[in-house]
Amino acid sequence: MGGIERIAAAIGEELRRRLPGQRKTQREGLALLVATMLSERSANLMDLAAALPRAAERIDMRYQWIARLLANPLVDPAEVMAPFAREVLARAAEAGRVELILDQSKLSDRHQVLMLALRFGERALPLAWHVEETAGAMGWVHQAPLLDLVAAWLPEGAAAMVLGDRFYGTAEAIAACAARGWDYRLRLKGNLRVLARDGSVAPVARLAGTQLYLTGVELTAKRAPTNIGVVHDPGHDEPWIVAMSDEPTYLSTLDYARRWGIEPMFSDFKSRGFGLDDTQIRYPDRLARLVLVMALALHCAVSTGVQDEASRPLPAEAKPAGKRRKNVARSRVSWFTRGLRCIARLLQSALPLPPLWANPARN
Q1: pTM of this prediction?
Q2: Where do the domains of the chain lie?
Q3: DSSP class of residue 322?
Q4: 127/343 Cα distance (integer angstroms)
């Protein structure tokens, strides 16, 4: 058994344990494709077909096998992701407030992906997504199902906060967060009209020019109640005008910056990781399943990186935080990159992948 088969067997066991009702052919197919993705770090189907360890000798037959798997309507990304998402959400809830980031990214000239991710360390882990053939932003009709899906996966009573850019600072999003008791930091467009406590109505940008913190205001004709904080730091062309559930202060407004954790994750999917932007897939449903393969690969890589850091820390990392040199944090590689490097060693030695999210003791 070669390296890819060993990794695939371990991933297949993770899928079997979390999805006992999944068809064996689906489980084995997904596991093999995720393992090949981790080996080749490419979203190009021909590259994956060339490395795929299947009995078919001709590369075009292996390519067709991959294409059939991605076209299979019985492979539901949300169904497959549910147990993986529940596990990382539960871990995040145990550590404190769960931070959910909503953002959109371009996959190709024709396709965009709307992603709801969990902030994890300084980056993010994918939870749920929607792929659409569009050149513009995806609205509330696509955002709402993702929030509903992840809300069902959260542990009961978990504290959560939703972070989103100006495309997501809407009355609907604010009302949805409020209905669930979630905190939120949603940046607002400057032309949104605000009803102030004194009864005056004005674009939020005009009010932000005179007041840094607004409480008890209502957004747009839908009268969504919220608070607003404004930060305009030196070097920024525009201020951050952020709607929030909490009392607006400088620090609570700065919480919005935590949404940037999703940007490195998109880079992990694309140029710095699996090269998703190089794919030639034309159908949104097939792209969504390819994102599923990458999401599972990313969870595997990050989990492996976390465990590798815990079990084999560098000398500087092994020191207590207060005694580390100031440049240690800057020099550390991400858990994703560290995990990929560790998996490369496992592939070369034909060793299995460690169990996901195990908690090894430090040496």
Answers
A1: 0.91
A2: 3-76+294-349
A3: G
A4: 22
